[in-house]
Structures are given as C-alpha cells and as structure tokens.
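Allow me, if you will, to draw on your knowledge of protein folds for a short while. Thank you for your consideration; the sequence and its tokens are set out here:
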Amino acid sequence: MAVCIAILTKDNCPLYLTCENTEDSLKMHFLVHTSIDVIEEKLNSTKAANDPRDLYLGQLYPNEDYRIFGYVTNTKIKFVVLESVSHPIKDGDIRQLFSKIHSSYISLVCNPFYVPGDPINSVPFKKSISGLLRSNYLSSRVS
C-alpha cells in the first residue's frame, strides 16, 4: 500500500509531498530526499542501456518499513512513491499508480495559471493525489 507520494523538480526541490499519516510526514520527507541519490545514479547509469521511453525506475531501495519506487518524466520531474512493506503492491500496480500521478501532473501543468517549478497548491491536483492514495489504501485492504 502506498503511504507517501512526492514530486520533485529537476533540481531536486520538492514541489509536492503528501502522506497517508501526517505524523510520519518528516520521516517520509527524509526518505524521499535519501532516494534522490539513487535516482540520479540510475539516470546516469542507464542512459544508453535502457529504452529512453521507459520512465519507470523501479524499486530504488528497500527500508525496514518501506519500499521506495521512482519515476522520472521526460522533463526530469521526479515522482517518488513509498510503499509499506507490510502491504506490498504488485509491480504492475505501481506502474499504473505512477501513470495516474503523471496524468494528474500533466493536467496541472496544462493549467495556464500554474507556473512550472512553483510548489503545487492546486486543489484539484491535491484531490486527485489523495484519491489515489485512498483508493490504493482501500484496494490493498480488500486483497
């Protein structure tokens, strides 16, 4: 089950971070920032090796409580998802989650009033992402 979703700029500044549990927000923020080095390493080591159209980086690293996954857009915007080890998600479901996050981000960027690089304060975007976290939470409880 995904417990945190973060969006970072190409310069690794946080644009958006939301967590299922607000008490763990600082811990999640720390884990997202520790994943930046792994993302940069994967981007630099796989430039020629992998298909450039594959934006999914896969599992960045496991932690005792969470598994951290990464995704990078063509414009180098980074998406990071933290998943609880106690309620794992299938790889295909993680890919689908990233695809939905990317679609929500595209809708945000298409808004003429949004300035790229500014922190994300859009209510529809926040509702969309919180809906993804909630639906992911509910689907993991059912299975």
About this structure: The mean pLDDT is 87.
